[in-house]
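Lecture notes, part 5. Sequence design as translation. It can be helpful to think of inverse folding as translation between two languages: the language of shapes and the language of residues. The source text, in structure tokens, appears below.
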């Protein structure tokens, strides 16, 4: 049920076609293989023409040789405390086809982008390039406002005390934004590892694997073909865990 902005159906086809034609003619596009890092610079605007981009962030380690600082996350069901290093990569979300993104440098945090699937094509622009397409500039700004609203929902989900609530809320938000319909609900069209999910919700791969099993037992999620995560029924429904 892809509700992401902007959508190809909402956008005037000729405008998008002119932008992609211009980008290809001016060598402003590049296609990446799965998990290949996408080189980015602050101040530039990027558009995903095809595929999906995965955003990750990490905190830079101490530069003076001091030991790495960890923090502990306790499982609400009595498991041993779990240590998570501050310099581990954290999954920050996806950018789908037709969506813009930018990478803002802010020490000590490092933000990076990777192609999440093969044949992911990205266009890069200067902001003043959008002077040629004022309607599309407004559309890009609307898309960034929408992404900001989604991040606020994400932060609200991450504020939940119980890990299982954060997990279900996180999966629901992803599928609500990027999901596609299947026979029994909606599924996320891209694979995510349990380690990536754990990094997003402040947990670990082992805990995510165990809690995913619990959610499946309660029929709150299920696995669609090729290991893709799905939610039965309408993903907008609030589930009680």
């Amino acid at each position: 049920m892809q509700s992401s902005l902007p959508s190809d159906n909402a956008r005037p086809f000729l405008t998008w076609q002119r932008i992609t034609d211009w980008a290809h003619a001016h060598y402003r596009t590049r296609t990446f293989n799965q998990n290949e890092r996408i080189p980015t610079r602050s101040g530039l605007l990027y558009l995903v023409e095809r595929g999906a981009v995965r955003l990750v962030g990490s905190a830079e380690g101490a530069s003076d040789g001091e030991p790495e600082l960890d923090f502990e996350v306790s499982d609400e069901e009595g498991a041993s405390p779990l240590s998570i290093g501050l310099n581990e990569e954290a999954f920050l979300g996806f950018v789908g086809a037709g969506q813009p993104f930018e990478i803002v440098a802010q020490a000590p945090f490092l933000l990076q982008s990777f192609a999440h699937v093969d044949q992911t094509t990205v266009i890069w622009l200067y902001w003043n390039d959008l002077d040629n397409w004022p309607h599309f500039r407004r559309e890009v700004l609307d898309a960034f406002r929408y992404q900001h609203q989604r991040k606020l929902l994400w932060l609200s989900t991450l504020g939940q005390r119980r890990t299982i609530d954060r997990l279900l809320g996180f999966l629901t938000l992803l599928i609500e934004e990027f999901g596609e319909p299947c026979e029994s609900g909606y599924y996320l069209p891209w694979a995510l590892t349990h380690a990536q999910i754990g990094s997003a919700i402040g947990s670990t791969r082992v805990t995510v694997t165990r809690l995913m099993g619990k959610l499946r037992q309660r029929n709150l999620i299920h696995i669609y073909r090729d290991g893709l995560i799905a939610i039965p029924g309408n993903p907008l429904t609030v589930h009680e865990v």
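The translated text above is only one of many valid answers, since several sequences can fold into similar shapes. Residues 134-158 form the longest helix (25 residues).
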